[in-house]
Amino acid sequence: MLETIVRPTRARARPHDIVLYAPLIRVISMRDLKARYKQSLLGPVWLVVQPLTLLGAYIVGFRGVSHIGTGHVPYAVFALAGITMWAYFQAVAVAGTASFVSNGALVGQTACPRIAFPVATLFSCLPSFLVPLVASLIASAATGVTSVRWLLLPLPALWMLFVTAGIVSITSSVTVRFRDMLQVMPFLLQLGAFVVPVGYPVATLSDKLRIVVSLNPLTGIIEAWRWAMLDGNRPYMLSLYLSLGVGALVIALGWRTFARAEVKMADVL
Amino acid sequence: MRVDHVHKSYQLGELSSFRRTVNGLLRRARVRSTDGFSALDDIVFAAEGGTAVGLVGQNGSGKSTLLHMICGITLPTSGSITIRGKILPLFAIGTSFHPELTGRENVVLFGAVLGLRQAVIEPQAESIAAFAELEDHLDTPVKRYSDGMKARLSFAIAMRFPADIYMFDEVLAVVDAAFRDRCLTEIETLRDAGKLVFFVSHDVTQVRRICTTTLWLEHGRVRAWGLTDDVLPQYEQDQAEHNARLLAAERTTV
């Protein structure tokens, strides 16, 4: 019989818990998915409206006002590619940050492994990725921008999943202690939609700005995604290296933050 | 399982507040961290399978805190707890229920939270519905259930899913007498089958009926621990004296 010892420790969660509790994570993702769209008339429509609105904003702001150049790729197709990645990140950032707070009863009254909550949002938010992805693929094909590099798309997508997981581990753990984070997230995301090069190529920035922007692990991912998706030029290579490096740091820090917060969660929530 | 000199203290008051932050920044008042509150103090006891342990004590004596710690929901401030086997806790009715999901979907959720695989959960769904007398309602969203229905479903789940240690924390209050009786009988069956059962209740008759041993907590300390027949009379007498004192105080103030 399994013997467990409960005693005061700094951290008790282990990364392989995620694999161990995969069935639970699946059940919770399904629960979140179902709950989100049950009894809602317009539920799935928002999946389309949100990225479209952002696309509209970009077209007006970056194309209409600033006349950003995107090479031989039509601007809308270019923007849609970036939006695919950003829409997923945004959805997970919102749902994931609140994951412990919204599952407060399970955290405080059951022995449910808490890692399941943020990890489940990575999967329950997949529709926010798939809808713009399909639109993006169709738009690309329609304008003749297809490429064998499409086969490489899973790579930046997977890395996006891991980096997002790292970021959300930090924000969700912080939220348990300081609820302000819930207010801050939407505001940060609004900023991010323009500060992160989703609607414009990194190449349009000045040299110094390029480096600053590349410190954000998301920048490199989006550049790589666009390179694989569209028939474009070389991505800004520094952003890719920094994405891998900073991203790895964020993932490590994310795990540490979660593991330490997890033991106190029931007391603090 | 064994509880070794377990202590648990909490901070009183709000953990973060804007006023404290501002005061701290302006160094206006000395930033005093909030006072500590000792919820449990030097708890020592042990229990084996095949017994039912009653947990009695006034509200706030630390019963729920102790059970939460045994489950690993929260950690002790010092001391340790050693457990052998899987725990199935029922702390409040329908806490792991999601209101938008149906009864059936919630059964699957509860089972997954317990760490059971789909292959173990699915076949039990019908049997659970039968025990809870909810066959027709299993595919309705739980938000449409009455409190009694939710309680019956929670119980049915607890009775049918496999575990080694069971915890019932004052969950029998909401159900009708007939169902309560069925549950108590089921709990006795669990106990006799070699499981360890923790039973928290303010109803002394229930404790007397099911529990072989009883732990009496008072203000976070073990007031008494031993056979139910020894501990319960002491507890009842203490309760009676306490009530008499309260009544006397009320009369003098009136």
Notes on the protein architecture:
- The complex is a heterodimer of chains A (269) and B (254).
- Chain A has 269 residues and is mostly helical.
- Chain A has one domain (17-32, 45-268).
- Helices cover 72% and strands 1% of the residues of chain A.
- Chain A is built from 13 helices and one strand.
- The two termini of chain A are 32 Å apart.
- The mean pLDDT of chain A is 88.
- Chain B has 254 residues and is of the alpha/beta class.
- Chain B has a single domain, classed as Rossmann fold (3-Layer(aba) Sandwich), CATH 3.40.50.300.
- Chain B contains nine helices and nine strands.
- Chain B has helices at 18-26, 63-71, 103-114, 118-121, 124-131, 147-160, 177-192, 204-210, 228-253; strands at residues 2-11, 36-46, 52-56, 78-84, 87-90, 165-169, 196-200, 213-218, 221-227.
- A six-stranded mixed beta sheet of chain B has the order 5-6-7-3-8-9, sandwiched between helices. A three-stranded antiparallel beta sheet of chain B has the order 2-1-4, covered by helices on one side.
- In chain B, strand 8 and strand 9 form a beta hairpin.
- The radius of gyration of chain B is 21 Å and the shape is globular.
- The mean pLDDT of chain B is 83.
- The interface between A and B is large, with 34 and 41 residues.
